[in-house]
Amino acid sequence: MIKFFRKIRQNSIKENRFVNYLKYAFGEIVLVVIGILIALSINNWNESNKLKKEETLYLKRLKIDLEKDTLYYNNSIDRANLLIVRNNLFLKKIYDVQNSIDECRELMNIPLWDSEYLTIQDNTYRELVSSGKLNIISNSTLKEAVIDYHRLNESKANYIKEFNEYSRELLANYVSAYPGTIKITRNPKEWAGILNDRMFRMEDFKFLNNPSSPQFQSLEDVIMVYIDKHKNFINLFDELKNNSKDLLSQIEKEFNKKK
Predict the structure, then answer these.
(1) Which of 43, 93, 108, 173 has its CA at a distance of 20 to 30 angstroms from the CA of residue 82?
(2) Which domain holds residue 199?
(3) Looking at the domain assignment, is residue 146 inside a domain?
(4) Looking at the domain assignment, is residue 102 inside a domain?
């Protein structure tokens, strides 16, 4: 096509048809501009397609993270419920008379002392933030939902950390005030072949038959704090689970829109 215009231009010059020459010269320019615009359009299309594929990849990774988070919340709720059941059972049985070391040790093995910290799957989100690619999520509403979800988790993680530190400090103070607590609260099977039976004396457990003693009442206080802590954690995990499910639903809708 360009050769065709050049040939006409040369003929026009020879024939001194200057006006026609200008027309065809302009045509050449227009042709070149159109070619550039087409090339830019193709390049922009390729770049846009590349970004869409990258966005889809990140959304899939976020979806996988949220699915793992949802499972994690369910497991955490189950564990917290188990702790509440076990520790409530202990508060009930602690008022029964303990007649032997074995009965005392069996009783002291009932409580659970979990202090789990909130740990979600946030590698994909952190990668998006650190690389400056958060804006690759083209749906602004979805992007804000992703940000809000992780901000909420960060806030709840701090709350869990503070409550855990408080409860563990109470337990540590109790152990410090009443030596031998760690020993008498361990499962005998865990210590088989390690501890000497003479380390366990009925005197160590006398407080269990004396509800008015400071050691008995202090243990009750610690147990009740752990129960209250995990009741709060259940509500917290349930809230986070609902948020993760909502965000999963939004991501699924975004996938459907792009199909």
Answers:
(1) 173
(2) 54-258
(3) yes
(4) yes
